[in-house]
UniProtKB/TrEMBL annotation:
UniProt entry keywords in alphabetical sequence: Hydrolase, Lipid degradation, Lipid metabolism
Gene Ontology BP terms: lipid catabolic process
Transmembrane segments: none
Organism: Rhodoblastus acidophilus
Name the record gives this protein: NTE family protein
GO molecular function, one term: hydrolase activity
Motif (DGA/G): 195-197
Lineage: Bacteria, Pseudomonadati, Pseudomonadota, Alphaproteobacteria, Hyphomicrobiales
UniProt short sequence motif GXSXG, positions renumbered to this chain: 43-47
Motif (GXGXXG): 15-20
Domain PNPLA: start-end pairs: 11-208
PANTHER family: NEUROPATHY TARGET ESTERASE/SWISS CHEESE D.MELANOGASTER (PTHR14226), SLR0060 PROTEIN (PTHR14226:SF78)
Entry annotation: catalytic residues: S45, D195
Amino acid sequence: MTAAPRKTINLALQGGGAHGAFTWGVLDALLDDGRFDVTGLSGTSAGAMNAVNFAEGLRKGGASGAKAQLAAFWKGASLDGDLPKAGRMVIDGLMACWSATPAAALMQQTASLFAPAELNPMDINPLRHVLRDGVDFDKLRASAGPKLFIAATAVETGKVRVFHREELTLDMVMASACLPTVFRAVEIDGEPYWDGGYMGNPVLFPFFYETSCVDIILVQINPITRKGAPDTAAEIAGRVDEITFNASLLQELRAIDFVRRLIAEGRLTGTAYKAIRVHVIEAQDELNQFGAASKMNADYDFFLQLREIGVKAAQRFVAAHYDDIGVRPTLDLRETLS
């Protein structure tokens, strides 16, 4: 019996707080399948955390190492993990502010009146502790493996900056996950940076210029479409974040669709242009039931629930579209963008 051909892919990992555990499940399922070669990973915020831990795990021990690394990260990032007391207090505060109760809505409105320096004067980000202890950035930078594209937003210019594997530091990853309403800007080379989601969630353009692979699998956390108008303050804020953090992604998808049409019509020729094939792994029906407030839920059982949803979503995708990868896109861009 002939073995199925291996598939070469790029992975684009969205941010989305605790919902990044969904991506953990997707990555685990792709690793378990064993037929995929990952050329590059682009990640923002929680997507950056997943991308870096995936790459670090591969460096340490191949596919099994990547699975172990991701599991250790998500356990460590949870309230069941070995977080310092100050980190636990920050998580507890975030969970309280983003719960769906009327009191929480009042807390959230009050919090919006204060800067991070006032609300979080010690500038404690509990994920820094987890990432610092789990990733050897010196060895990661010096090692071979998938390309890494980690996005952060330059505060002063409003432009995206993409950090690469060979330069990557702990601060760069933390910058990608720096929500300005909670944490102070992260300074890199004297420049302040905020969460990369404002300008790329995640960025796709590095794949075009820095990899030869034309198949991108987008692991989608934030819904593009959500039926009905939100009613509560927390729901409104959540939907605003979803729209904001999807805006740059939609622009890049529109550009991909435009170039594909020009190539198909014979109006662009030569090797300078690529007909990018986009695929998506998502489970919006399951994720939407939790609401935006759950993105701050650091309960480990919740992470495991999201991971299981991610595993099943990836398995469904592979069963339906494995043969399409390398041949045709499976995301209808015109329908997505219309």
